[in-house]
Amino acid sequence: MLRRSLRSVTRPTGGFVCLSCLVAEVGLRPHAAPSFRRSLTTAPVNAESTNPSVIANISLRQGQGIGQIPASPGSGNKKPKKKANKQKKSGKADNDKEPGRANSGTGQNVTRKIASKSVKKEGAHTTAAKSKTNTSPGRPKQQHRTYPPPPPPPRLSRQDGASIQHSRHNRPAARDSSAQRPVQKQREEQTSAGKRTHSGILESTSLSLVPLSIEGAPVPRLSYGLERALFNPGVYHLQDPRTRVYNFDPYLGSIMPVKEFDFSALNEYITSSRDDGLRELAIRHGKKYIGSSSSMTSVLSHFHYLLSAWRPLNTSLVSQGFSDSARNFTRILRAPSAVFLRYKDGVYAIDADKEFDNANILMNLGKSMEKLLTMPTEEFERYRRSSTDKVTPDAVTPETYHYTTCGNFLMRAQLDAHDPRLPGTGMFDLKTRAVVSIRMNTKHYDRGLGYQIKDRFGKWESFEREYFDMIRAAFLKYSLQVRVGRMDGIFVAFHNIERIFGFQYVSLPEMDLALHGQTDIALGDAEFQLSVSLWDKVLAKATEKFPNQSLRFHFETRETQIPCMYVFAEPVTEEQIDEIQNRNKAEIEAVQKKLLFPDELEQAGELEGGNTTVEEGTSLQAASSETITEPGVSQSDSEPDVTNSEEGSADAAADVDFDDLEDPPTKPIFAMAITIQNRVNGKPVERPNSFTSKDKWDVEYTFTMFNNPERAWAIYSACQRRRELSLSFDDDETIEDNAYQLLLQKISEQGRAWRKRQDRIEEETGTIVL
């Protein structure tokens, strides 16, 4: 071996190389060291992958490859070691040559030999991009390397891809952040490539929420002594399952049926676009966009996916014995979000898109149960239709709101309940949570009425089951609503439409622990402010292209290795908006009449055979069986969804037939992709962790515009199809065809029999109240 090594020093082309000798010789030449060290890496590093749809649908600039790295000022003065590290991190083989002068000795030939072997091992196919650079006398010229792009997907054009890659390569590397950072701060935003890409930096330390002091009616407090649950972690049973002692008034054990509640006595919900007071307040404070907590949270959820790089949920709050493999957000929560930006008097109002909304019993039950939890029994009974002392609409207390500004946004949040002993403002939200058998089948909710909650832990019929489903389906929306309203948390009442089982107060730190992995709310607060600010930038770009007119937006963050958000906006008239919003109005009214006036319909003979479809959950509050004070956000929140990958291949824009599009590709559209880079205290990170108020979070964002209208419309159409598939269900998707539904129905039947036995025992022993 020693003889072969010695021979290799004198004859390096012989096939054997002594590494120590080679290092000693090549180390004398700094310009060759990086190439040698990189060539010794035998394990290939996978290059970062991005969304193929984005790369395939963005046009390349003439003369530039997708993976080409542009020349940067002062590149010739970089230290060889740093350049080697950069090459190693990108996962590309070093195939540099040293043109310009012939070096004496054998080190150059050996370096070339090993580099070529390394390229073969990694399977890389590189080409040299020759460019002229200023070189000092006696120093070899520096060449720019071109890395191979991934093979394009079939039937997809490669337009617009270079813009995203160009913007990524132009970002300063982590090791050069100290040198590049002052330049970035001087130019907060820059536009390049003929306004196809736009980049900038958002700093968490420069953002803040500004509350507006607006006097309103007093906010009610909890009744029946329920405030005890506010200051005790965990669940409060309405009735102790072991001793059968009621912790609260047994009146709560029986929920007033929706057909007996007078909903006409309640205040009508006012959307952002119809709130003239909100618009006037925005004009007075110089704000451009207005929205409510319910209309904004679905879009802010997708900004959470983008900024947190699809942070995994923290399910450590449930017991180890809870066997459920799903650890991601539900499919419906991941669906694309759509909103309307309605223009009037210089202000844009954000309204939720109700194209796929439908009515169900939970929409009504949430409103009545909110009154139940905040009123004494005598006052609540006045809302019963048969009451002789009915509540008149004029006597109902008007709603009270919290108003908060952030940038150009003015946000409104309705206040449900208040307790001065809670931290901060003392406000909290009321949520009524139906059991899983009801949420999963609102069309035939009567089949799940027997489902009971018996224990604290367990996969079925437990508070743990409902808490786990809230983590996956509702905590993100709940936490965003709490932050919009500057509240402390949420008060949850668990029920099966007929009976309340228990109560739980979930504070904002507890929700953040499940969503962000920490109880310090600094991370969630910073992400919320950055999300609103980034949304502000997006709306500014869209309204710049289509000024002073209403727009329909779609937002979708794709589950790719490098998260990327699609944003689409198309101009719409008020007539088009009303047509979309009222598309299911007749069906909703028919379902409402069936639920609220069954006796009248039965007498008229209209109820028989009335098989109006009530599809599974149509607004996020409705499907989650929570208070519907601000309805119309998203859909049902629980389904047997255990995979992270999206079903189907609806994102294949190449499968779109332009003849089938509702709008021709010639119609103007705003389409862009957003990518970001997170930095915490100046260091690049995938997502912030263990973040405190002393840390600084910067978000470097890049907007890449779609220049090809046909490609933009194709991807937009695919996004709309994904939303439709997630928020609607086929008529033939019946309970008999679903094993998961059959299991819930069986559990409900067993629970109904168990409840009858418990009622008989209670009749014999009597009712005991704490």
Overall, the morphology is globular
What percentage of residues falls in helices of 4 or more residues?
25-40%
> Radius of gyration in whole Å, from Cα?
31 Å
The number of helical runs is 24
**Strand count:** 24
Strand content: 15-25%
Distance between the termini: 88 Å
Instruction: Tell me the major beta sheet.
Output: 13 strands, mixed
Count of discrete domains = 2
Kindly name the structural category.
alpha+beta
What do the pLDDT scores average to?
76
Indicate the low-confidence ranges by residue numbers.
4-17, 19-189, 608-662, 731-735
Descriptive overview:
The protein is built from 24 helices and 24 strands. It has 770 residues and is α+β, with helices and mostly antiparallel strands. The chain folds into two domains: 2-131 and 138-147 and 154-161, no CATH class; 222-638 and 648-763, no CATH class. The strands form five sheets. Strands 5, 6, 7, 10, 11, 12, 13, 14, 19, 20, 21, 22 and 23 form a 13-stranded mixed sheet that branches. The protein has a five-stranded mixed sheet with strand order 8-18-17-16-15. A two-stranded parallel ribbon has the order 1-4. A hairpin with a 2-residue loop joins β13 and β14 (409-414). α3 (33-39) packs parallel to α5, α3 (33-39) runs parallel beside α6 (107-122) and α10 packs across α16. The termini are far apart.
